[in-house]
Amino acid sequence: MTQAARWMAVAAWMLVLAWSGGAADPKGSIPDADYAKLAAQQIKIVTESLKAAMDAEPLQKKRLVDKAKAAAIVIAQAAQGNLDGADSGQRLALRDAALAVAKHLPARDPNLADALKLAETLDGVKAGGGKKERLQLLPGHIDLGTIMVPFKNVDKGGQDLEKLLLKLSFDKKKNIPPGQQGDPLLLSLYQTAVIAELTRDHKVPKDEKKWQELSDDMKRTALEMAEHVRAKDGKSAFAALTKLNESCTVCHKLFRDGDQ
Question: Which of 237, 154, 247 is nearest to 195 (CA)?
Fold first, then answer.
């Protein structure tokens, strides 16, 4: 079974759970039905980025390695988002496997061959017996700059997340068009929420409480927008997008532009 087929099968199973009463993680994270889709998407990004990095020139290689590492950490964080369900063993195993990939991708002298070998096994990870505990992944497993890479433009090694959110905010009807309310946007929002969970643990020189509040706002509004997108409510999704972009703008002004 191919990677896509295997994860789509898992997604279908989780959709059955969702339709029969399954809900989002009580801690406020990704619904099980969408978690499998996000994992499949990020696994593909990890493997494709590492393959491309093999023969890339130095600057592009660094960008691809950062892209792969950020995706691996998103997988790990998303996997440990809900450890109370029936699939907790598989989630723990996937988290640890994704962290093993990231471990081979330090800023200097990444081990691409071993990282790729491990990445190609992510879609077949079987449930393990690890302890059900959430790990703090930033800064121990990744730094702030690298986890924010997905927001950069594609030509800079990113995934255009920031560009997408800004583009949608220009709609004169203050509505997310029906054609935009599909899985690509939904998964981008869940990815944004996962990254916000991670950034919360970054230590800033001052006003740490404000940093944490903004990270919480980023996660909450991304999940709120995702909920409206799933419900095909373009007006409410746009309202949530406005709050999400405002949160990002304030954060940039206080911290990124202020060199904190």
Answer: 247
CATH 1.20.120 range(s) for the chain read: 149-256
Give the model's pLDDT for residue 87. Answer: 93
CB 32: neighbour CB atoms within 10 A? 24
Which parts of the chain sit beneath pLDDT 50? 1-27, 258-260
Distance of alpha carbon 205 from alpha carbon 260, whole angstroms:
6
Q: Which two tokens stand for residue 125?
A: 């990870």
The class (CATH top level) of 149-256 is: mainly alpha
| Model pLDDT, residue 1 | 42
Query: How far is CA 187 from each of CA 33, 65, 183, 226, rounded to the nearest angstrom?
Result: 11, 21, 6, 8
pLDDT digits 0-9 by tens, 163-202: 999 999 999 999 999 999 999 999 999 999 999 999 999 9
Instruction: Check residue 206 and give its pLDDT.
Output: 85
